[in-house]
Design goal:
about 280 residues, about 45% helix, Rossmann fold, alpha/beta, globular, disordered N terminus
Length: about 280
């Protein structure tokens, strides 16, 4: 097995055996919550009719289908992901939509042999934070770009800027043993949360022109505290706690989450502060 394949095995297992099946089952909810963030990167990407686009970490296909809509009948869009359960859902949706010019492939962006100079745009909505070797991965994506192409993605800022992560974990701290925070830069949702490191990684990967814009917007679940608490028990770091401590008191955890989320309930559902980077990089 190639070095990158071996090193990324933990992510393969996670997205095929743990998170992937849950995301596929909760596809509609995930799309509703994440769509506003994906739109930020879509606007930065400026997809032109007829464009050739790569969607990295395409998941259940919502972003891939939107990229194809923007690229139009003459466009070509390839969605790649490590998760077979999520890709299966993406293929179902593309078939139901009659989406032409769309393909999905099980692939690791770190090592996939992209044809050099193929894509006008490489796009990602939260799919580039899980690389074991980010410089290698971004360099591989750069090779797939045309000389005048660009990489456009959205990623989370640091934990201190994202209450949607902080609030649930603080609520559970008196009830269960929380896992230690990962080392800085370790693969995971917050791996690109330091702007300086993010710029250095892209520069080391061969991107000469990098624009990073910080944006704040609500992490809006569209549901009340009870439904949001149940959502967090299955998605994100709280779900990890339950996987690692199956004996944990789920009912108590759900009650604590609901209480912690109550101050953030609005007439539109629960809305927690969040912050992302919208990145556009060119060779």
């Amino acid at each position: 097995m190639a070095r990158g394949a071996a090193a990324n095995e933990e992510q393969r297992r996670h997205w095929n055996e743990e998170a992937g099946p849950v995301w596929a089952r909760r596809q509609a909810e995930m799309d509703r919550v994440l769509e506003p963030y994906g739109l930020l990167a879509l606007e930065a990407a400026g997809i032109a009719p007829g464009a050739s686009v790569l969607d990295v970490g395409c998941g259940c296909g919502a972003t891939t289908l939107e990229l194809a809509r923007r690229a139009g009948p003459g466009g070509r869009v390839l969605g790649i992901d490590l998760s077979e359960p999520m890709l299966a859902r993406a293929r179902e949706r593309a078939a139901a939509a009659g989406a032409g010019g769309v393909r999905f492939e099980l692939a690791d962006a770190q090592e996939h042999p992209f044809e050099p100079g193929t894509f006008d745009r490489v796009y990602s909505r939260f799919g580039v934070m899980f690389f074991e070797d980010p410089v290698r991965a971004f360099a591989n994506l750069r090779r797939g770009l045309r000389p005048d192409g660009s990489l456009c993605f959205v990623c989370w800022q640091g934990l201190e800027r994202n209450a949607w992560l902080q609030v649930p974990l603080r609520a559970l701290a008196p009830i269960v043993a929380l896992p230690p925070p990962p080392p800085p830069g370790a693969p995971g949702p917050l791996s690109l949360g330091d702007e300086g490191r993010l710029r250095r990684l892209l520069g080391a990967a061969g991107f000469a022109r990098v624009a990073v814009e910080g944006r704040e917007l609500p992490f809006a679940t569209g549901t009340g505290v009870r439904e949001t608490a149940a959502f967090f028990l299955e998605v994100g770091p709280v779900a990890r706690v339950l996987r690692e401590q199956p004996e944990a008191p789920r009912d108590r955890m759900e009650e604590a989450l609901a209480a912690a989320l109550a101050p953030f309930e609005t007439g539109r559902g629960v809305e927690l502060p969040s912050a992302v980077f919208v990145v556009r990089a060119q060779p």
